[in-house]
Amino acid sequence: MTTSRDFQRARSPEAKLVREAAILDAARRLGAERGIREVTLTDIAEAVGMHKSAMLRYFETREEIFLRLTAEGWRDWAPALAERLRAIEQPAPDAVAAAFAGTLAARPMFCDLLAQTPLNLERNVSVEKVREFKLTTGAGLGQIVPAVRAALPGLTEQDGVDLVAASTSMAGTFHQIATPGPEVAALYRSDPRFAHALVDVEPRLVRILGAMLRGLAGERAGSA
Amino acid sequence: MTTSRDFQRARSPEAKLVREAAILDAARRLGAERGIREVTLTDIAEAVGMHKSAMLRYFETREEIFLRLTAEGWRDWAPALAERLRAIEQPAPDAVAAAFAGTLAARPMFCDLLAQTPLNLERNVSVEKVREFKLTTGAGLGQIVPAVRAALPGLTEQDGVDLVAASTSMAGTFHQIATPGPEVAALYRSDPRFAHALVDVEPRLVRILGAMLRGLAGERAGSA
Questions:
Q1: Contact assignment for A208 to B166 by CB distance below 8 Å
Q2: pLDDT of the residue at B189
Q3: Nearest Cα residue to B48 out of B36, B58, B38
Q4: Spatial distance between the Cα atoms of B199 and A143, rounded to a whole number of angstroms
Q5: Integer Cα distance of A148 and B193 in angstroms
Q6: What whole-number distance in Å separates Cα of residue A130 and Cα of residue A110?
Q7: Residue A124, pLDDT score
Q8: What are the backbone dihedrals phi and psi of residue B36, each rounded to the nearest 5 degrees, phi first?
């Protein structure tokens, strides 16, 4: 663990970046361990060995830290998904659905952040930070949508945007439903009346996105 | 506004129910006015004219109050949707999609609550309250899924459950994205690079659920 002393003077831009990276590292580690909702600003300050008041010189709020991690998540996920889509040789809705579901399910902390973003993270930061974040998601769409349209010719730009919106909103929500606390998880397994509450994120995404893409592909082929 | 005096003694079960209803009414009114996230336990206590400590004898937490309103939302939405599905005369995926999208978009506070449920509301209440809530959502599924399968013969039970999961998770997330604060809303309208951040809940749900249902209906017909 880094001590407060190490962070006493960071007047150069480079030193500032080093501190920011240390704060983001601590938030990322704690978020992955216990879920975003359980991580407070105080937890991050303690993990990074800074006083909370000093940390607020680098990030306005707890939400800004996690919004930065969400942007980082988009910059990781979008090119990984685009690459997987480009590897699809024959137009196949199910292969596109599997690429979305597989790359999202492999990134559980990103799914956690996706659900937190519109509810919490975009609400407690300045407009300038929302602006930066939306430019990042826009750039992600700019990588994903053309790759979807190359994999399934006939799909429109709007189909691609709808697909990204559907997959990210469901991945976020299903991840939350699939990770209840231990007592609630025990409840769901205790009684067949709660079977509907047990969610396996990836297969459900594959089924729903697969059906959506078969519907879109059928319609576009029919109208072509 | 009711005063604290009116609530001084509520020893009979009937009086307890009256107080509970008054608390739920206040929470519903405040939630509809300003969005669930902005309503604190103190706000509800003030609106209902009770001390916060007295209110905690009726509800364990703020989240329990809103989880009760979410259950009430399911008991309102499920039969309304089932009735609309039963009125569909010819099997038509788009009519089923329009029934889901229309009944959800007409209930903005329910959409707000749907997004809050797995992130917040189910986390800060007792297991017993989650259990009651899940029985309510299970009963809702029991009304909706058979009506979907009657409207689109060939769909499986799992197709119906997936459709409810897809529609409720997207309605919740899209509602949050569609209702940013005023400064962020102005940002989105200021620059075409943010066009992807502008969401119109109902048309987007119609497009996505319509494609999903055309895909499912096509597949089930093909395998029949």
A1: yes
A2: 87
A3: B58
A4: 20
A5: 20
A6: 17
A7: 86
A8: -55, -45
Minimal-distance CA residue of chain A relative to B184? A127
CA-based diameter of chain A, in Å? Answer: 67
Distance CA B23, CA A142 (A): 47
Chain centroid to CA A190: how far? Answer: 31
Cβ atoms B200, B105 nearer than 8 A:
no
> Which value, in Å, is the radius of gyration of the alpha carbons in chain A?
20
- What is the Cα–Cα distance from B171 to B189, expressed in whole angstroms? 22
Residue at B117: amino acid letter: T
Q: What phi, psi does A60 have (nearest 5°)?
A: -60, -40
Query: What distance in Å separates residue A11's CA from the closest CA in chain B?
Result: 32
B-chain residues near A156 (CB < 8 A): none
CB contact under 8 A, B130 and A184: yes
As a whole number of angstroms, the distance between CA A29 and CA A46 comes to 13
Judge contact between A173 and B118, C-beta under 8 A: yes
8 Å CB contact between A55 and A21: no
DSSP structural state of residue A149? H
On the question of pLDDT at A210 being above 90, the answer is yes
Instruction: Give the number of other Cβ atoms within 10 Å of residue B121's Cβ.
Output: 27
Rounded (to 5) percent helix, strand, coil in chain A: 80, 0, 20
Q: Indicate if the pLDDT at residue A181 is higher than 90.
A: no
For residues A177 and A195, the answer to whether their CB atoms sit within 8 Å is: no
**Is-contact A144 B87, C-beta < 8 A?**
no
> For the packed helices B157-178 and A157-178, what is the interaxial angle rounded to 10 degrees?
100
Residue in B123, B173, B196 closest to A181 by CB = B123
Determine the Cα–Cα distance for residues A5 and A8; give it in Å rounded to an integer. 5
Convert the pLDDT of each residue in A88-125 to its tens digit: 999 899 999 999 999 999 999 999 999 999 888 888 89
